[in-house]
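Final paragraph of the annual report: two paired records, presented back to back.
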Amino acid sequence: MISSVAESYQIHPQTLRLYERLGLLQPSRSDGNTRLYTDEDLKRLEVILTLTRELGVNLAGVEVILNMREKMEKLQQQVAEMIEFVHEQVSSSLAGSFRNALVKVPSSKIVRSQQ
């Protein structure tokens, strides 16, 4: 709830409402229209507070940074999916093409060279 979150993070409830109005936070709502903050919402709030309190970023800058973080996370997910796809394709391709490539070689004596 907004009062407990505000108290925990030592901010005014109006600040949380402002963050919501600006689209920086989007808590879910209960049937009684009470704001419900998830762990993800709280992590996002911590990022916002770090940016504003410790780094002096204004709210417009916070919005840009949060949007860039979301885009980066999506790109990282897409890259991971692409790597997995390529890995699967290469593995299946190599397995099929080299299935009969190994040739038995009779064992031989190992001879050490004299240096």
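The closing record of the year follows.
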Amino acid sequence: MPSPESRLRVSQDAGVTLVEFVDRNILDEANIQQIGEEISGIIETRPQPRLLISFANVDHLSSAALGTLITINNKVRNKGGQLRLANIDPQIYDVFVITRLNKLFNIHADTSAAMSSFQ
């Protein structure tokens, strides 16, 4: 589970792991690497991970963070799990559209919509 200096808040709800970011700006390479490692650790501890990543507090996201999300998505899929993204700021969502990542990820307007989409 996350260490005291974790960049994430992690909770469980109905068999789904909810991940929320502590930082408003996910730009620093070291933080992005730490976030990737923490989420990978969560994925590895579950046979079929069901993961919901909320961007409710996030104002800025770097391209390196998008790369980390793609890696996380692949790890979840390789284990037969499900990944949902929610609460993405409209400006950040535009980047998902431009890069066509909105086609790769299962994105929902809010956490409750994302939670109800799990099978």
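The two ends are 24 Å apart (CA to CA). This concludes the annual technical report; the extension proposal builds directly on these records.
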